[in-house]
Specification:
Elements lengths: L4 H14 L2 H5 L9 H12 L3 H22 L37 E7 L2 E6 L2 H18 L10
Antiparallel strand pairs: 1-2
């Protein structure tokens, strides 16, 4: 890989920040915040000097790498403080969840369309699950012919 001198310099700064022992000793809860929103709030309130831009950006990249390491992903929160990545959207073909007549299957999964080709998944409640299983068992028992038990001598 051919990196420019500038890219090497930026990576050296990031690696230097990542090597800071203070970060290694910090609890993962310390990293659980939306760093980009934090920086935006400072910029809106105080502005930023030209000579602070690059160090701030290097620190932002460092924090994002540490969030991935410690928390599994970069944190983004909405205006209510809810983690926008708590319930990831899974995209897939959902035709298998409906039978050919268009009625629901016996799957314990529910889905709600929340955008073009995007669905939010959930499980049915315990009561709904029991109803599904009762219905399934009733249908199954009606269609199954019982054989006489074999008696052993």
């Amino acid at each position: 890989m051919n990196l420019t001198d500038r890219q090497r310099d930026i990576l050296k700064q990031i690696i230097s920040n990542l090597g800071d022992e203070n970060y290694r000793n910090m609890d993962k809860d310390w990293f659980d915040y939306d760093h980009n929103s934090f920086i935006k709030s400072i910029l809106v309130r105080d502005g930023e000097r030209l000579d602070e831009m690059e160090p701030t950006d290097i620190q932002s990249i460092t924090m994002e790498i540490l969030q991935i390491e410690k928390l599994g992903h970069i944190k983004h929160y909405d205006k209510n403080g809810d983690d926008l990545r708590k319930d990831p959207i899974i995209e897939e073909d959902t035709t298998s969840y409906k039978d050919t007549k268009g009625s629901s299957s016996n799957s314990p999964f529910r889905y709600k369309k929340i955008g073009k080709n995007k669905y939010k998944y959930d499980f049915v409640s315990w009561d709904e699950w029991e109803k599904l299983m009762r219905k399934k068992n009733e249908t199954k028992s009606k269609s199954v012919k019982h054989k006489k038990p074999i008696r052993r001598k």
